[in-house]
Structure formats: structure tokens, C-alpha cells
Amino acid sequence: MNAPEQVDPVQFTDYYGRPVLKVTRWKSPHMPGYLFLGGLSGAASTMAAAAEATGRPRLARQGRLTAAVAAVGGAGLLVAELGRPERFLNMLRVFKPSSPMSVGSWILAAHGGVTTAAAASTVTGVAPRAGRAAVAVSAVTGPLVATYTGVLLADTAVPAWHAAHRHLPPLFAGSALAAAGGAAMVMVPVAAAGPARRAALLGALAELAVTASLERGQGFGEEPRLVSEPYRIGRAGTLLRAARLLAVAGAAGTALAAGRHRAAAVAAGAALLAGSACTRFGVYHAGVLAGRDPKYTVVPQRARPRVQESRPG
Amino acid sequence: MTYDPARSSGYPDPPQRVGFFTDTSICIGCKACEVACKEWNGLPADGPLPEDASVLELTGMSYDNTGALGASTWRHVAFVEKQNDAGGLNWLMASDVCKHCTHAACLDVCPTGALFRTEFSSVVVQQDVCNGCAYCVSACPYGVIDRREGDGRAWKCTLCYDRLRGGLEPACAKACPTDSIQFGPLDELRERADQRLARLHSDGVTEARLYGEDPADGVGGAGAFFLLLDEPETYGLPPDPVATTRDLPAMWRWAAGAALGLAGGVAVAFLGARGRGR
């Protein structure tokens, strides 16, 4: 009866079907939108730094602008996500290594600062040397911004997110690279965009490979088929299937036609951007489902040895 | 010596760690704990529907019209109706509360420092600091803490921090007419719970078990633990809760690897054909 992506019904007594966990209060599109924009910004700033170091001014300029716009947009989504947005500066009240959100806030603050400075320098022509220094710093903050979000989600009780703590950082890194490469393909002429195409291709391949492993629940611990089920069914399943189609189409277009025709480059780049966004929204919605249905919490925990041994006869 | 959360949080000479032992075998489902908690803490009303907390209606869940713990419900009495082997009905009641974990995931992930460990080893939100990021909501392995709609901040049981500071016991324990909710030093409560469990077992109540009392469990033992008469999940409790924040170093290692991979991928893409396509 069940579709193959679904696990057979499991037997346990729940409390009127109520969730054991609280369903995440993080909202859509805020949280997944931030995951996408933060990744785009982080990879774009890294590419801008590489473009500058290898003497590619068009890619460098596009990377600076994309990184700054995406960083500011992403930070805006995060502030709007708070229950008390006027208190967003409380994020920088302490530095707390045990909280990925605290660490991430400091990384994002630094990254937002240097990418905005770099973009402002490019646009105004003021302080070009400081602009170059800012880009160099953003080559460090960029990869961190693009990957810490994997830890942000994994450091929760949400089974589908926590079990994926090995998957989410590399998935987000690949997805970020595909998006930033795609953005450069859309905005930079074909002749100047060669490295962006290669970056996009690498990113899309990584995104596809990690998603495939994620959907199978490889390395997930107890009950991997069940815990990974939220990635295969419902809204998340649909989004991740769309992400795969877009990534495959975008990668094929990048490899075959984007080096010759501007229109093909724009289409392939847009497909990669959309695929990256679908990946982030898919991962978010998998976490929503995993929190809502108590079976994803109870069944894997019951399967653990210490629970098996301690059950009264 | 047992691990003392208050001491390891920097209190040089903390008072004894206190908590709750909730013996559900003598709970009569009167909900006096829920009412006393609402009264003392001035909590607003909330309905049982998570999608709209303002709706008040019957849930059809036995006598439970509270639904679950939440931002404005810090004690929740569960009513379980379960068919037993003799063809009758087991009617189980249990008053749930924040566990005040020894290793508290909500406290670990809070980015502002709003959540803190008190000198009594309980875990409390400073409402003037919380900015409503809701990270604690997703971190709690019991689904206890929540963000209050319309207010925007996270709220949960404080173990009546104000009453403790004044030398009083928490309002729920004070109001409980059967002493199903017992408050006191955690060590004493554990001893009392062991005796109660042994008594029930010798009386033939073999399904009785303690929940959350083990310092070796995934949260380092709960500051509020329970005697249950069925599997934890029957009451809506997780069978083996874990503060997943203990895996944080491994998670950062994967993120660091991914960040290096991203930087390496960009380097490969740009160095692959140096000087071309300016």
C-alpha cells in the first residue's frame, strides 16, 4: 500500500498522536530563505576573493555585490524571524561557544561587515585597498557562513536534522557553491565566467551526492529508514525531488552549453539557484515533519540498547 | 561526588540541588498543580490547539483539555485511557513539567544568555534578555519550552525560582493534595523514589518504573523525575531523551571540513585555468 519511499507502519503507544517534541517555531520562508541567502553570500564572497587573486575583475565585482546583497537580505530574514526583532542585538550580548546560533551571529556580523564594505568600495570607488582587504577577510568568513548553518539545524532534538549532522554542512557547502556559481553565470558574460561554471558544476555534483546519501539515511544511527523518511515524503520530498531535477538540468546546461551561449548560461545558472533554494526549503520542511509526528522521536529511541535492556518484563 | 550543575556553572557554594519527584501512581487528576502554577506565575490562558493557542475547546482526549506543556502551561496533567489484558481500562494520570536537566540542551543553545542555571541547579529564562530566537524550542528533547504567540519570547517552568529564593516550595507541589508532586533535595527524592518503587513492585505493580532519575541517561538525569505505570511514550514522553548538544564538537568538525571543502572547490575552479576568460 505504501509508496516505496515510506516505511511500513510502526507499532507503539503514543499520547493521542500528539508530538513529543515542539514543532520548530522557525518560520518559512524566513529560516530556509536565510539558509539559502547565507550560503549564496558565503560562496560568492569566497569566489570574489579567488577572482581578485587570479585577476578576474568582472567575476570579482559580481561576487562582491552578490555577497553583500545576500548577506544583508539573509540577516534581515533572521531579524524578522525573532519573536522580539527589536532585541536582535542581544545576539551579540555574549559569545557562547555552546550555541551555534551565538557563534553564527558573530560570524554573520563579521561577514556582513566585510562584504558590505567590499561592495561599497566597488560601487563608490572609495578606499580600494580597504575593499581588497575586506574581500580577503570574506574568503575566511564566507565558507564559515555557508556551512555553520548545518550545525545550527543539527544541534537540535529534531531527529531528521540531528541524525544528519554529518550531511548538512557538506550539503549546504555544495548547495552554496552551486548557487553562487549559478548567480555568476547569470550576471557575468560567458567569456569571463569560466571559473564560475566550474565552481557551479562542483557545487551541484556535491549537492546531488550528499542529498542522495541523506535521503537514504546513511550513517543515521538507529532506524535510519524511518528517521530519513521526512526527506522522502510530503512537502520536503517534493522539494528535494525538484532540487535534484534542477541541479541535474543546471549542471548539464553548465557543462554542455553555458560556455557558448549567454542564454544557456542564464538558464543553467537560474536552474542552479532555484535548485539550491529547493534544497534548503526541503531540509527545513523535513525538520517540521520530523517534529510533528511522534514516531520519528519514539521509535529510534526505543531501538537503543539502553532502552531495550531497561524495559520491565 | 555526583555532578553538581550549579557548582560547575560557577556558584562557589550553592545550596542543595532541589527538584520534583512526581509519583503518578497516586495522581488523582485534579489539576490543582496546573491551576496553582497559572495563579502563582500569572500565566495567560491558552487552548489545546498548537495551531491556535487562543481557541478553547474540548480535545476529546479523556479529561485532558490542556493538551501539552507550552509557553503558558508549565504543569500539564495527562490522562491516558488504555485497554488492559483483563478487558478493562487502565486510567492513568500524570502531571508533567520541565525536567530541569543536568545537561540542558535549551541552556546550551541559547545565544543571548537569557537561559541560565540557578543556584538551585534549575534552568530559568530571563525574560528581559530573551529575544525570541526559538532555538531552545527545537533543542529541548522533551518538547517543554515554547515561544509565546503575541509575546514573542520563550517561556517555561522556573521551578518557582521566586518562591525558592523566599524559602517556599513551588506552587504546584504546595497545591498537590495527594503528594503526587514532591519537592525537595534531589538526593532525598531519589531515595524516596527507590523505596516507593520497591514497595510497588512487592505489591505486584510490576509495571511501575522510574523515569528521568538516572544520572547516566542522555540528559545527565532530570531535576524533575517521575514514577510511571506504563511506557514513557504512552504519556507523551520520549523513551530515551538526549541532549543532542553533546555531539557539538563532532558537528563542528564536519562543518570545518565542509568549509575547507568549499574553499578548496573555489580554488580548484579558479586555478584550473589561470589567466583565461578575463
From TrEMBL, chain B:
Q: Does the keyword Cell cycle apply?
A: no
Q: Which residues bind [4Fe-4S] cluster 2?
A: C37, C157, C160, C172
Q: Which GO terms describe its cellular component?
A: cell envelope
Named from the GO MF annotations, one term is: 4 iron, 4 sulfur cluster binding
| Keyword entries, A-Z | 4Fe-4S, Iron, Iron-sulfur, Membrane, Metal-binding, Repeat, Transmembrane, Transmembrane helix
- Top-level taxon of the source organism: Bacteria
Q: Where is the 4Fe-4S ferredoxin-type domain?
A: 18-48, 89-120, 121-150
Cofactors that this protein relies on: [4Fe-4S] cluster
State where [4Fe-4S] cluster 1 binds. Answer: C27, C30, C33, C176
CDD domains cross-referenced by the UniProt entry = FDH-O_like (cd10560)
- Segments traversing the membrane: 251-273
Keyword field contains Transmembrane: yes
Which residues does the record give as [4Fe-4S] cluster 4 binding sites? C110, C130, C133, C136
Q: Which InterPro entries does the protein's record reference? A: 4Fe4S_Fe-S-bd, 4Fe4S_Fe_S_CS, FDH_Electron_Transfer_Unit, Formate_DH_Fe-S_su
Q: What's an example GO BP annotation here?
A: formate oxidation
What does the UniProt entry say about where the protein is found?
A: Cell envelope
Binding locations of [4Fe-4S] cluster 3: C98, C101, C106, C140
UniProt xrefs under PANTHER family: FORMATE DEHYDROGENASE, NITRATE-INDUCIBLE, IRON-SULFUR SUBUNIT
- Descriptive protein name: 4Fe-4S ferredoxin
Task: Write down the species.
Answer: Actinomadura craniellae
